[in-house]
UniProtKB/TrEMBL annotation:
Residues 4-248 form the Endonuclease/exonuclease/phosphatase domain. Residues 264-312 are annotated as: Disordered. GO terms for molecular function: double-stranded DNA 3'-5' DNA exonuclease activity. The gene is xth. Belongs to the DNA repair enzymes AP/ExoA family. The lineage of its organism: Bacteria, Pseudomonadati, Pseudomonadota, Betaproteobacteria, Burkholderiales. Pfam families: Exo_endo_phos (PF03372). Its cofactor is Mg(2+); Mn(2+). Residues 270-305 have a biased composition (Low complexity). This is Exodeoxyribonuclease III.
Amino acid sequence: MKLATFNINGIRSRLPSLINWLDKEQPDIACLQELKAPDSAFPEAELQDAGYGAIWHGQTSWNGVAILAKGTKPTETRRGLPGGDADTHSRYIEAAVNGLLVGCLYLPNGNPQPGPKFDYKLEWFERLIAYAQTLFDSGHPVVLAGDYNVVPTDFDIYNPRSWLKDALLQTESRECYARLLEQGWTDALRKRFPEDKVFTFWDYFRRHWETNSGLRIDHLLLSASVAPALRDAGVDKWVRGEAHASDHAPTWIELKLDTRKANDEAVKNAAKSAATRSTRSPQPAKAAKTAKAAKTAKTAKSPATKSRKTPS
DNA sequence: ATGACGACGTCTCGTCGA
């Protein structure tokens, strides 16, 4: 199962590029940010023709988020973060797709800082942190994907020198991101590439793409039950190299999250366990002890199996 | 300190992004 996040910087201007990418890479789920279009301008029919169902939360000119799913329409579970009644920006949308809960977010940029925009960024971040805790604690398989507008460390940028005053590198921004991770989330790209420079954004200025002067600001965070299912991750850099490209590249993860298979195995194991108990009924105490030991060994060997949840 | 580039709307410049 491939899940991607892509800040497309204008869905109308980028539609041919988006369709081309979907066609070539076939993500099962795609989180989009910066639609820069009102709800009425969302290209639902064109995406349907490309094989994707969608939910979206648009806004004139700015922001805007959407979740696409191949061959199905995502089941929307939320739009906007809790506590944001006065917030008019379209920056969060969430859906269930095949038992996985997907949060698609576009965190405020925050420039210039200091100032009201940076304050808004930190406020929004606090609301995300609070809500993310409840998601994580639920034990449900969750992926929080999007444009976080945070360069987590100096290793996540070609050279921090000319960005030191930028909102993306501020200590406050980084501390918020670190606090989010401390809840237990796995930063999938960093997990997959612990020692490589990985970029997801190259600005249009100063030949930054041509010189690979990038930033890593698009992140996919995995909850405890999803993290063991991570098989691969990457950045579709070729998209950034196309003519008329967004300044971000699609960033993706590959998960082996077959909940149905996990359920089948659980049923099989339960049946086997019951059979073992019945054959050893003359020595119930010993049988229970053996079963318990076996269970403990299995859990230690494969925590992923234990933590997988049934889709709701 | 500014601007480089690109999208969008108010529409040919101003505002915003990162």
